[in-house]
Structure formats: structure tokens, C-alpha cells
Design goal:
By secondary structure, this protein is mainly alpha-helical. It is about 65% helix and about 0% strand. The chain has 14 helices and two strands, in the order H-H-H-H-H-H-H-H-H-H-H-E-E-H-H-H. Strands 1-2 form a two-stranded antiparallel sheet. The protein is globular and about 75 Å long. Bound molecules: fe (ii) ion (2 copies).
């Protein structure tokens, strides 16, 4: 769901990311490719594409996929403690959706020639990034609602433009994902609204506390400011990115400030004020040191999240081995039957 870290490269990638010298043929093909995209054309898996375009997409789509499955962890933590059967069923469905999003996205990245194993290995070794929003803990039940409202809400803002991404398999995966994300956002808002309008004082205080903790990390999900976002310009030209980080962040803040009023919660930013002349909400300074600190592995839950993913892969190894052994046995049986016929 979460595209914040998606144009963040690891140190190894930055070192390897020198664009090779191109032949005249490649330069001509690249010019034709760019003209096709500028014309609104899509690129499919088997089409020629510049190496750099392929690499950028593999990085972005795989980081997006990792974000979906790491994103299952903070909320999964509350499935067994959901307050009612209805909320438990909703949360189960949502967490399962996120697993599905990971699956579509790994499959889309695989069409670019990178295997699932390589991508998972990059996640587990810490080489690949995922959205750092999931390195914050879910301390109370209200955090589940706040994630739906704010984190999935920010994800939708980020992802709707990706439905028009120039790479066809990614764009198509995003159309399906966005439909589900809007359900995620609404269930979060509904859960918070129920507590705010029908709950106790303690529940209302719990909602406010969750909003206080999730607000700033949510608006960091749009990534660094445009003037500090080195890969954005190229991604815009290639139709991978359609709207800038700052523009999306402003759209999100404008929409959310109104929703906060309906909910009856205060957003933790004393500088948040409506600016009539701009037609937008002004907001205070974002703590980018905190953002980079968490992206670089020092958030409250980075270690815990990665350890949970590695453990899940290790614990599930026997299932993958058994499935492969079963498939091999079946293929051998079918080959025998063909020979006998
Ligand atoms: Fe998602
Ligand atoms: Fe979601």
C-alpha cells in the first residue's frame, strides 16, 4: 500500500547505479521509448525498455510488495484482541488483503525478470527497503483504526496515480489494490468514529493518543520534499510517478483535516490552519531527521519486523519444500502415464 520509501535506494544500489554508456542504437531506442511514454503509451513485460527503467521499477515494485507484507504485522498483532466479532472479521479481511497486495506486486515485479527468491532475500538481508511507517508500534486498539484512516488513506493518495503508471502489469495490479485500500480507509475511519461518538471518555482519549502518534509518520509517507527527492524527476518523465511528493502530501492533508473535524479529533500540529489565499491547509515543519532515522533502520520496531518476516519464511520452508516435492512427483507421474499411453 505504501510507497513512501519507494524511491529510496540502498547504498549498494547507489554505487551500482551508474548509467552505462549507450550505443547509438540504444540511444535511438530509448528516444522512441520515451516518445511512446510521452504519448501516453504503456509498456508491457516483453517490450524493450531501458535498463534503468527496468531497475527503477523492480526497486519500486518490490519495495512496495515488501511494504504490503511487512504492513500485515502491526495490525496482525491485534487480530486476537479485536473488541468484537465484527471488528475481528473486518481486521482479518484487511490483513489478508495486504497479503494479497504483496502477492500481486511480487508477481508484477517478476515479469521484469527478478525472481521472488531474490526479492525476499533482499528484504531479509536488509538491502531492500519497505515503508518505514510499519516500524512504529501498535500500542492500543485505536492504532488499528488510525492506521486504516491515516496510513491506508495516505496509501490511496499515493497509489491512485500509480494506476496510470507506464508499466502495464504494475498499473493493473494497482487498480485492484486501490479498490481494496478504500475499504481499508473507510473501516479505519468507521472504527474511530464509533469510539468517538459512542465510546467512553477513555476510548476517546485512546483515539486522540493514536492520532497524535500516527499523524506525522503518515504525512512522511509521501517521501522527502520534492527538492530532496533525487529520483523523482526521471520517474516523472518515465510515467512511473505522476504527481510529486509535496503535491500528494498537500492533497492528503487537505482531505484529512476536514475528516478530523468530523471525527472530533485534533491533529497534533499547532500550525495546521486553512489558508484562504492558497486554497489549502498550511502545516508545520516535518521532522525529516526522524524520517531518515527510521528509513535507515533505527525506528522503534525495525528489528522486530524484519525478524518476524525471517522467522515466517524459515517456519514456512517445509511447506514450500513439500509443495515442490509434490509437484515434482505429480509431473513424473504424468510423464509416466504419457509414456505408457
Ligand atoms: Fe495494501
Ligand atoms: Fe491497506
Amino acid at each position: 500500500m505504501y510507497t513512501q520509501a519507494l524511491d529510496v535506494m540502498s547504498k549498494q544500489e547507489i554505487a551500482a547505479d551508474r548509467r552505462p554508456v549507450r550505443s547509438a542504437d540504444d540511444a535511438a531506442r530509448e528516444a522512441a521509448f520515451e516518445a511512446h511514454i510521452a504519448d501516453g503509451g504503456f509498456v508491457e513485460a516483453k517490450d524493450w525498455m531501458p535498463d534503468h527503467y527496468r531497475k527503477t521499477l523492480v526497486r519500486q515494485i518490490s519495495q512496495h510488495a515488501h511494504s504490503e507484507i511487512v504492513g500485515m504485522l502491526p495490525e496482525g498483532n491485534w487480530i486476537s484482541r479485536a473488541p468484537t466479532l465484527k471488528r475481528k472479521a473486518i481486521l482479518l479481511a484487511k490483513v489478508q488483503d495486504e497479503g494479497g497486495h504483496g502477492l500481486y506486486l511480487y508477481a508484477a515485479a517478476e515479469t521484469l525478470g527478478t525472481s521472488r527468491e531474490q526479492m525476499i532475500e533482499a528484504l531479509h538481508s536488509g538491502k531492500a527497503k519497505y515503508s518505514s511507517i510499519f516500524n512504529y508500534p501498535t500500542l492500543t486498539w485505536a492504532d488499528v483504526g488510525a492506521i486504516g484512516w491515516l496510513v491506508d488513506g495516505a496509501a490511496i493518495m499515493n497509489q491512485v496515480p500509480l494506476c496510470r503508471c507506464s508499466y502495464g502489469p504494475y498499473a493493473r495490479a494497482m487498480i485492484r489494490i486501490c479498490r481494496e485500500e478504500s475499504f481499508h480507509q473507510r473501516q479505519g475511519f468507521d472504527s474511530l468514529l464509533t469510539m468517538m461518538t459512542q465510546g467512553t471518555d477513555a476510548q476517546r482519549a485512546m483515539v486522540q493518543d493514536a492520532v497524535d502518534r500516527w499523524w506525522w509518520p503518515s504525512i512522511m509517507m509521501f517521501g522527502p520534499p520534492d527538492d530532496a527527492s533525487p529520483n523523482s524527476e526521471q520517474s516523472m518523465r518515465w510515467g512511473i510517478k505522476r504527481i510529486s511528493n509535496d503535491e500528494l502530501r498537500q492533497k492528503f492533508i487537505d482531505a484529512t483535516a476536514e475528516q478530523a473535524r468530523v471525527l472530533g479529533v485534533a491533529l497534533p500540529d499547532p500550525q495546521l490552519t486553512w489558508n484562504e489565499a492558497r486554497g489549502h491547509w498550511d502545516f508545520g515543519a516535518i521532522d525529516w531527521d526522524e524520517f531518515w532515522n527510521v528509513v535507515n533502520g533505527h525506528g522503534p520496531c525495525n528489528r522486530e519486523r524484519l525478524a518476524a518476516r525471517v522467522k515466517a519464511a524459515d517456519d514456512g520452508a517445509w511447506v514450500r519444500e513439500a509443495a515442490l516435492a509434490h509437484a515434482a512427483k505429480q509431473a513424473a507421474r504424468e510423464a509416466d502415464a504419457l509414456r505408457a499411453a
